[in-house]
Specification:
152 residues; 5 helices; 0% strand
């Protein structure tokens, strides 16, 4: 049986995949569709995390204490996160959403600073490494708040 001229049922116009690739795609594609918003949010979060880490480490290298360095990086990246998430993830924006997003991110900033303090000053964790569990917590808070409050 020839597959010439056959296209995917998804309507992409691409040729129907064959073999192992087709099997893997049939398994993965529904997950990507189901979790598309979360995946996009994570990719945008990854971009902002890289920017935040660069700013955080640069400011600490210049002699700024790690708490204000974290705050400056967080604040500088929130607008970028809002714009990208509003456009590509939640397909919604406006002044009200921006105010809510700012409030959510500032709450996250306070939570992140508190966690950073606990990990560095109380638990003795490395200042750079401590940022990663803090990011995991604040990213979860930000996604949940964005999905169910800011952009609902």
């Amino acid at each position: 049986m020839s597959t010439k001229g056959k296209t995917e049922p998804s309507g992409t116009g691409l040729p129907a995949p064959k073999g192992v690739y087709a099997s893997a795609r049939r398994l993965v594609e529904p997950l990507v569709i189901k979790y598309e918003k979360f995946i996009k949010f994570c990719l945008i979060g990854l971009l902002n995390t890289v920017l935040n880490i660069i700013i955080y480490n640069a400011l600490m290298h210049l002699g700024l204490h790690y708490i204000p360095a974290y705050a400056v990086g967080f604040i500088l990246t929130w607008l970028n996160a809002f714009r990208l998430n509003a456009k590509h993830v939640f397909k919604s924006s406006g002044k009200r959403a921006m105010v809510k997003y700012f409030a959510l991110y500032m709450s996250s900033l306070l939570l992140g600073n508190w966690l950073l303090f606990l990990l560095v000053d109380v638990a003795g964790m490395n200042k750079t490494l401590a940022q990663f569990p803090v990011i995991a917590v604040t990213m979860t808070v930000n996604y949940t708040g964005s999905k169910f409050w800011v952009f609902k």
